[in-house]
Design a protein that fits this description.
The protein is built from 2 helices and 22 strands. It is mainly beta. Bound molecules: beta-D-galactopyranose (GAL).
Amino acid sequence: MKNVYNTFGGTADAPWYDTDGKRIQAHGGQVQKFTVNGKDKWYWIGEDKTYGYRPCGGIHLYSSDDLYNWKDEGIILRTMESTDEFEEPYFKELYGSLTKEEKETIFIDLDRNRCVIERPKMLYNEKTGKYVIWFHADGRFPGCKGDYDKAKAGVAVCDRPNGVFRMLGSYKLNYHNDPNGEYGFDGWENRGSVRDMNLFLDKDRTAYIIYSSEGNRTTFVSRLNEEYTNLAVDRDQAVEGVDFTRNFIGCFREAHAMFCYQNKYYMINSGCTSWSPNPARYAVADHPMGPWRDMGDPCMEKGRETTYDSQSTCVILVDEEKGGCIYMGDRWKEEDLAVSGYIWLPIVFLPDGKMILEKREDWSYGQESSK
Ligand code: GAL
């Protein structure tokens, strides 16, 4: 089905098709503007769930001039059926110089029948000229049976947003240095675990990773290195409060979406109820690393107990000057994840750092406060 759109479906949740008439597959995603070869475009990165939960479809990219109509830019991080595929041109070009052991390690993150690739996000690094993807790298691996025991952050790089991304690796991140602390189901053994995650690029070009850790009890914000390819400081040397912070301790938050609006930092997140929606909360800070002030539920209308049947994934800052912001949420359909919907809503800002996610159907940008 081919459609030309001039509205966002919002809570109406009609299927959203790309410019070829195929359902958009970019769940747990992020939208941002990049200038590529002198041309400004919006890019939407997300999880490809064409085959449902698994086989894992990898990471999909779309591009748009207007945020309504999206062109398929293809799968930018492909998954693999077996290690034999390292001999095929696509993977040989990327990983041909690696040892057998190194290839086997990459395969764990890309094994389409066992891996979990969730909430991919991209950054452009002005210094290196590279695009960097971070994602929640999970799934089964030798000796483990659960889908979320690995709990790492995967990193991949490329010279273009719509090119072929090369995996650098997957990592455990920062941890609270106290073997006797309370770390929920992860315990001290699984310290530095990463599950739902997001990225944030500040105006000074410092980048941060935001992630649920300690058995999802706590939200970490960690500074990335200058290349955006790893932590700023090795996790065994990092200082809590300087190189990373622990936020919302014991509050079980996930689906983090951080953005900056008029010099205030905002974070929207959800509770931890798997694919079922729950009430969102938001918090405000003067710095990406906090401290965060809890502001409560950003939804005001009927349906607020499920964030209008959605879970946050990103906020699009449409216009730096005018400050228009769009909330991007996923409406997961657990019985068939491939048809999970995208709930995009306007954000309205009120005095004192308050904001509201407006419940809207078939709305267009620029009319978000007309209610
Ligand atoms: C949600 C999470 C999703 C996915 C899902 C699996 O809580 O936000 O990204 O991990 O659980 O159950």
